[in-house]
């Protein structure tokens, strides 16, 4: 497969999610239809199954290529083991296509750990980046807030966190159009003396690197939804727990609303009227809107989605990947972290 | 001041919160009125100010004692420094009364770090407890879920976390009436190989101590509101960020509802009708209902409240303190963790 076309080419792991390949194919078809075939999509997976879904979706006329891959890495596979044992998996085949620059981006709703590991190992890191990071998108009163890291690195060092902040700042600026994004360090209090050893050392590192980014100091858990920062920096253990907690809020409230409606016919009526406004209001917590989260810091564009990704989520992941390529996020990350490398901070 | 009465005596830091002593006095008055003076309350603080609030609240006939303390530890004071520099603060005077068993419990909406430090230093720890823990109360689909630790200890060792789980289990059983409470370790995935070094070692520690508590393994951020566990164990850094995030959810949603109402008169009307049901639904996220959080593991009963505690929150903190004394939480903690001590694990 050559890449002679002028159009961007985005690879989709067709076997990644819980509803693969159906949702993946539907999302790809929708992305092409909605953009008037603005890019090409490469679907990687079990050929017969993928082609059958394309036919079902009447996608035969669209710029959809299929690259066969007969193995599947599932949610229960241990990431690094799976990469070795399943070289013909849709994930590994897709990442290798990206490594060879046959495609410009890679999108997967598969095993997050395996996608992160494959991207890091096979694509490599941008010079100056010690560890790639997953940037989760939270709603806030002042627009989207990034939480970095949301699960790529559980054991962090201060300079990892500093780099997460720089990468998040760039993503926030070039993807969300925020000027001079405010970067805050998630901590248990605002004073610089607060927190564990990691937080204190990281604070000092941010102060030292302040000329490059707009470091606003420590922020607290309540400041995320308030929109006090555009980028909230934390280790991947905390970020992952926080992201999953936040994503569970709408479901919890829906249960509460349902219980309320069950209390009587009038209340049921009231909740019926409210269905649409509530849906609109909870939209901000809905991962489908953003589709997926970028893995920042790898030599390529990788977007990771939920296992339960809907076609809409897959479509939005593809659009996000296109945008990340066009906005040259990686070029800007390399520019910003170049000195890091010469200081020998990566590793 | 002697303690000859048969009634319990609960000390309230009258200078602790942002609206002290007004809210503290009002909360104390309400607690006594609501319970028909079931206990006595000792208000500690600037005597004139406290007595003036009592008069305003027509509380002259109630079993309210005032113990003078002329210094105040505020939110910006460094905890340990403040304890030394302000021996006549309402916080230190109150904790010393409790240490001398002049009162049976202590309630404060003051500086959380200072209340934790004073309780730990002056009351001491229950035998077998390495570190006291703040147990935050989260709502869930299956009733209240405790998150331990919610901010007492930011740098944790595996046996601290294990003890937090045991103490949380006891609190959940005796305060919420849960049988054999399910204790889960907050982690980035369910498999026992998941997480950072601390999580893996803690997992092993829980498995080793499983006979004492109902350890259900790793849980994820989304499992808290779902009610998968009665007790969610994590370090105080994560727990504190998570608690403050959760507390900010209703405010964020209120802003969303307000924005929605501003879109037009019909929407405004709809939101007006919904005000009460929404308030009822968000009640679960409202810290005022529980009033405050217990500091578990100290030789005494300490309840810590929000700086912004309302009279209702103060009242509920007092009721919670009474309940903790009556349910003999500390006796059960000592029973459960006694072996810990003989194994020399505390310190």
Describe this structure in words.
The structure is a homodimer of 347-residue chains. Chain A is built from 13 helices and eleven strands. With 347 residues, chain A is α/β, with parallel strands linked by helices. Chain A has two domains: 1-129 and 297-327, Isopropylmalate Dehydrogenase, CATH 3.40.718.10; 134-289, 3-Layer(aba) Sandwich (Isopropylmalate Dehydrogenase). An eleven-stranded mixed beta sheet of chain A has the order 3-2-1-4-11-10-5-6-9-7-8, sandwiched between helices. In chain A, helix 1 (22-35) packs across helix 12 (311-326) and helix 6 (158-176) packs antiparallel against helix 13 (329-342). Chain A is globular.
Topology diagram in text:
The structure is a homodimer of 347-residue chains.
Chain A: E1 9-13, H1 22-35, E2 40-45, H2 47-56, E3 64-68, H3 79-85, H4 90-99, E4 105-108, H5 112-123, E5 133-138, E6 145-148, H6 158-176, E7 182-186, H7 197-208, E8 214-219, H8 223-226, E9 231-233, H9 236-261, H10 265-282, H11 287-290, E10 292-296, E11 302-305, H12 311-326, H13 329-342
Parallel strand pairs in A: 1-2, 1-4, 2-3, 4-11, 6-9, 7-8, 7-9
Antiparallel strand pairs in A: 5-6, 5-10, 10-11
Give keywords.
Isopropylmalate Dehydrogenase, disordered C terminus, 11-stranded mixed beta sheet, alpha/beta, homodimer, 347 residues, 2 domains
Structural class of chain A: alpha/beta
Number of domains of chain A: 2
Calculate the mean pLDDT score of chain A and round it. Answer: 92
Write down the oligomeric state: homodimer
> What do we call the CATH homologous superfamily of the largest domain in chain A?
Isopropylmalate Dehydrogenase
Largest interface, chains and sizes = A-B, 56 and 56 residues
């Amino acid at each position: 497969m050559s890449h002679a076309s002028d159009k961007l080419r985005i690879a989709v792991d067709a076997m990644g999610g819980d509803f693969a390949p159906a949702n993946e194919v539907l999302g790809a078809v929708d992305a092409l239809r909605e953009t008037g075939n603005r890019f090409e999509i490469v679907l990687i997976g079990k050929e017969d199954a993928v082609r059958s879904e394309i036919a079902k979706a009447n996608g035969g006329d669209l710029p959809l290529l299929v690259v066969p891959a007969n193995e599947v890495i599932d949610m229960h596979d241990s990431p690094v083991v799976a990469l070795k044992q399943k070289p013909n998996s849709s994930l590994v085949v897709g990442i290798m296509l990206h490594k060879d620059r046959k495609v410009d981006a890679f999108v997967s709703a598969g095993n997050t750990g395996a996608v992160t590991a494959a991207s890091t190992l096979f694509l490599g890191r941008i010079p100056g980046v010690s560890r790639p990071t997953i940037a989760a998108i939270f709603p806030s009163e002042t627009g989207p807030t990034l939480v970095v890291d949301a699960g790529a690195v559980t054991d962090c060092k201060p300079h990892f966190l500093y780099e997460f902040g720089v990468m998040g700042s760039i993503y926030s600026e070039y993807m969300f159009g925020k000027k001079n994004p405010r970067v805050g360090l998630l901590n248990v209090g605002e004073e610089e003396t607060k927190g564990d050893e990691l937080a204190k050392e990281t604070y000092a590192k941010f102060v030292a690197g302040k000329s490059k980014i707009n470091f606003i100091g420590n922020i607290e858990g309540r400041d995320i939804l308030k929109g006090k920062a555009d980028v909230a920096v934390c280790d991947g253990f905390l970020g992952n727990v926080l992201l999953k907690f936040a994503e569970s809020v709408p479901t919890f409230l829906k249960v509460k609303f349902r219980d309320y409606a069950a209390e009587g016919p009038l209340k049921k009526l009231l909740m019926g009227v409210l269905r649409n406004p509530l849906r609109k209001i909870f939209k901000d917590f809905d991962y489908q809107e953003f589709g997926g989260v970028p893995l920042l810091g790898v030599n390529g564009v990788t977007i990771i989605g939920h296992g339960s990704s809907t076609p809409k989520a897959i479509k939005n992941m593809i659009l996000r990947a296109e945008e990340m390529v066009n906005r040259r996020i990686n070029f800007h990350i390399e520019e910003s972290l170049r000195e890091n490398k010469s200081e020998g901070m990566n590793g």
